[in-house]
Amino acid sequence: MLRVSHYESDYVDFSLLRRPGDPSWRRPQVGALSAISSQWTLEPEERLLVSIPTGSGKTAIATALPYLARAKRTLVVVPSKELRSQLSAAFRSQQDLLNVGALNRASPGPIVEEVTGRRIDWARLQQIDVVVALPNSISPEHMEEAELPDPELFDLLIIDEAHHAPAKTWRAILDHFPSARAVLLTATPRRADGKLLPGTHAYHFPLRAAIMDGIFHPVIPRVLELGLPVTDEAKDEAIAAEVASQLAQAEHATSVALIRVNTVARAGRVQTMYAAKGVDARVLIGTTSVEDRSAILAGWRAGTIRAVIAVDMLGEGINVPNLRIVGYHDKHKSTPATMQFIGRLARANEEYPQQSVLVTVHDEDVYPALQGALRELYREDADWATILPTLIDEEIDRERRDREYLSAFEDPPESFNLAAVKPLTRAVLLEVPPGATFDPRFADGVPEGLRAGQRLAGRHIAYAGLNEHATQLVVITSEPEKPKWYVGGELTRSIFELAVVSWQKSPDINRSHLLLVNAQDLTLLNAVRGVLDLESRGVVVFRARGVVTATG
C-alpha cells in the first residue's frame, strides 16, 4: 500500500489566507509563496530562486512549501550543522506557520529526519516526510553507483543558503532528482566568485522595502580611527575595548556579541584581549566538538556567554535573537559574505529592541578587494541605511538582467555555462560605414561557417549562439591537444577558445556603426573576420587592437 505523506493527507488544514484575528504573514513571505505557487502552475519542474533579506522569514517559507506542493517527500539541504538542527526543529514544531494562523493547532506534525554521516538507509527514509541534511552527507557526488537513491525518492527539494548551489556537491543533488520541484532560498543570490545560481529568479524582496517594513533591524556602525601604521595588535585592542564598552552599557544588558577573525591563531590572541577587559569570549572553530559547540551556542543564546569568537563560522543562517554587537576584526572581502555577516545583526526581534552595533576600524585600504559600495561602508559618516540596499539590491538587479540577457541565447551543451563566460575587454574595433554592404545584425541567424558542428581554422565549433536582437554572436571552439613528447592518445585534452562579435548601432543613420570582434586567440580572431568577409564588404578597421569597453 502506498504511503500517504503528512502533506498529502486530507486532515491537514493549511491556508495561505489569513483567518480573522490571526497575525499576518510578512510581505516578503506572501510575495515569495505567491510567486512560487504561480510559477509552479506554469513550469512545475523549473528550479526557482527566491531572494529575501536576512530576518524576513525564510524559515516560514521553507516550512510552508511542502504544503503548497502537497509533497510526498521533501529534502532540505543546509550548509551547517547548526542550520540542520534549527530547520529540523522548525519543521517538527511548525511554529512559524502556527504563529500566522496558516495551520490548525490540532493538526499533527510531519515526520522529520536529520541525516548525519554518509551511511544512509534510503528504504527507511521512504517513511519520512522531511529529510534535512548537509550536502556532504546527501550528495550523489560522494556516492558509488550502488549507493545512489531512487531519483524519484523526493518530489520537493529546498536548498537553504542557496548561494552554495553551484558547488559540485550541491549541484549534484539538483541534477540527481531532475523531476523534483526545487526552491533555492537565499539572501545573497550571487556567489563571491561571481557565478550565477541555477534556476529562474522567481522573486526578490528588496532590502530597501525590508528596512521600510521594520524587518531589517537598523545597524549602527562604530568605525574607529587609528593612528598609522595600522597594526593587527592596535586594531584588535581598539575593537575589543569598544565591544567591551558596548556590552557594559545598560541597554545591552541582554545583548551578546559575535567576534569575527580569520585565523585560529588570531582567535586565541583576541580571546586573551577580551578576557583582560572582563569579557568571557568562547572560541568556535571548525574542529570544535559537537558537544562543546552545542554548549557554547546554548550559553550564548541564553546570555550566560556574552561573546563568541568565530573563525569562518556563524556567518549565515544561525539565528541568535539577542545578537546585537559585532566585533569585526577581519573584514570579509566580498559583498555576499559581508551581507551575510551583517545580516546576523539585522534580525528584528521585539524582545531585543536595542540598537545593533558593528565595531570595526578604518583599515579598508588594507583590503584592496573591497570595492565600490562595499568600501563605502567603512568611510566616515557612511549612511548604512542607504549603502546596504545599494550593496544587495543593485547587485540582484544586475544579476536578473544578466539572466534575462543570457536566456535569449541558444542553450549551450551541458558542459558549458554561458553565465561563466567572461570575455577579455580587448577587441578589434571596426567601422561599418553607411554605404557598406555588410549587415551586422545577423538577421539570417548564425552565419554559415560559424555554426555549431562546423570547422573553423582547423577547430571544432562547440557552440555558436546569438542574443535576442541578433547583435551579439558568441562562438566557442575546441581542439584536442596532447604533450609533444607523448605519441599516444591517452593524455589528450580539449583546448577551448572564445570569440565574441558585437554590433553597436549608430543612432545617426549618416554615421558609421561599430563592430567589435573579441578573441584572445589571434588565429581564431582572424578566422572569424575571414568568414564574415568584412573588408570586401566595406568594413574598415577603426583603430588597432587596444583596450575598449565591449557592449552587449
Characterise the protein shown here.
This protein is of the alpha/beta class. It has helices at residues 27-42, 58-69, 81-93, 95-99, 122-125, 135-138, 168-176, 207-213, 232-248, 264-276, 290-302, 335-343, 372-376, 384-407, 522-532; strands spanning 47-51, 74-77, 112-115, 130-133, 156-160, 181-186, 200-204, 219-224, 256-261, 281-284, 307-311, 323-328, 356-361, 426-432, 455-456, 459-466, 472-481, 493-504, 513-519, 540-547. It is built from 15 helices and 20 strands. The strands form 3 sheets. A 7-stranded parallel beta sheet has the order 3-4-2-5-6-1-7, sandwiched between helices. Helix 1 runs parallel beside helix 2 (58-69). The protein is globular, with a radius of gyration of 27 Å.
Topology (elements, then pairings):
Layout: H1 27-42, E1 47-51, H2 58-69, E2 74-77, H3 81-93, H4 95-99, E3 112-115, H5 122-125, E4 130-133, H6 135-138, E5 156-160, H7 168-176, E6 181-186, E7 200-204, H8 207-213, E8 219-224, H9 232-248, E9 256-261, H10 264-276, E10 281-284, H11 290-302, E11 307-311, E12 323-328, H12 335-343, E13 356-361, H13 372-376, H14 384-407, E14 426-432, E15 455-456, E16 459-466, E17 472-481, E18 493-504, E19 513-519, H15 522-532, E20 540-547
Parallel strand pairs: 1-6, 1-7, 2-4, 2-5, 3-4, 5-6, 8-13, 9-11, 9-12, 10-11, 12-13
Antiparallel strand pairs: 14-19, 14-20, 15-16, 16-17, 17-18, 18-19
Helix pairs in contact: 1-2
Radius of gyration: 27 Å
- Summarize the amount of helix as a percent range: 25-40%
Strand order of the largest sheet: 3-4-2-5-6-1-7
Query: Which structural class is indicated by helix and strand composition?
Result: alpha/beta
Shape: globular
Mean pLDDT: 82
Quantity of strands, as a count: 20
Q: How far from one another are the termini? A: 57 Å
Largest beta-sheet characterization: 7 strands, parallel
User: Strand portion, in percent?
Assistant: 15-25%
The low-pLDDT segments are 366-371, 543-552
Number of helices: 15
